[in-house]
């Protein structure tokens, strides 16, 4: 299986990068992993709603240009469907069974995802109603994808 993670914004925190590297290494025995880091748009704190849309649209164009047409796209969005780890594993297993061997997860920038990216997504996934920094979501997502593969393979993993 091919897993691609498209993410907006540069990762600066060394402790997050160490965790991401660890889960990327663990995942390598289950899937081919690609992380595509796209630049974020500069957005001042007091941005108007129209300005926010403009920023998300510019980031969205970069995201869309990196999603392969045959890839099953899962956008991380606060309004998406929440799943347990077991449900995510079951979903990923079903996708592989039905020939969707390339899954692309999309993590937006600090303002979220554009409407065009959300329209392109085959599925919207929410990890919580809480807001997390998009850099931290990379690590959380990788851990959950790794956990999903362990569940699919029937291998033990702490709860």
Automatic annotation (TrEMBL):
One of its GO terms (molecular function) is rRNA (pseudouridine-N3-)-methyltransferase activity. The keyword Metal-binding does not apply. It holds the Pfam family SPOUT_MTase. It catalyses: pseudouridine(1915) in 23S rRNA + S-adenosyl-L-methionine = N(3)-methylpseudouridine(1915) in 23S rRNA + S-adenosyl-L-homocysteine + H(+). GO terms for cellular component: cytoplasm. It is found in: Cytoplasm. CDD domains: RlmH-like. It comes from the Bacteria. Keywords: Cytoplasm, Methyltransferase, rRNA processing, S-adenosyl-L-methionine, Transferase. S-adenosyl-L-methionine binds at residues 76, 108, 127-132. The keyword Disulfide bond does not apply. Its EC number is 2.1.1.177. SUPFAM superfamilies: alpha/beta knot. Belongs to the RNA methyltransferase RlmH family. Homodimer. Specifically methylates the pseudouridine at position 1915 (m3Psi1915) in 23S rRNA. This is Ribosomal RNA large subunit methyltransferase H.
């Amino acid at each position: 299986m091919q897993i691609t993670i498209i993410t907006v914004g540069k990762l600066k925190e060394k402790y997050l990068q160490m965790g991401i590297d660890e889960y990327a290494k663990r995942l390598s025995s289950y899937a081919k992993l690609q992380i595509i880091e796209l630049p974020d748009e500069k957005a001042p704190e007091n941005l108007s709603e129209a300005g926010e849309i403009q920023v998300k649209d510019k980031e969205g164009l970069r995201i869309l240009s990196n999603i392969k047409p045959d890839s099953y796209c899962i956008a991380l969005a606060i309004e998406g469907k929440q799943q347990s780890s077991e449900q995510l594993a079951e979903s990923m297993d079903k996708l592989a069974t039905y020939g969707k061997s390339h899954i692309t997860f999309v993590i937006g920038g600090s303002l979220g995802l554009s409407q065009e990216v959300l329209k392109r997504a085959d599925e919207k996934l929410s990890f919580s109603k809480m807001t997390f920094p998009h850099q931290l979501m990379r690590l959380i997502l990788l851990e959950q994808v790794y956990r999903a593969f362990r569940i699919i393979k029937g291998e033990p993993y702490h709860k």
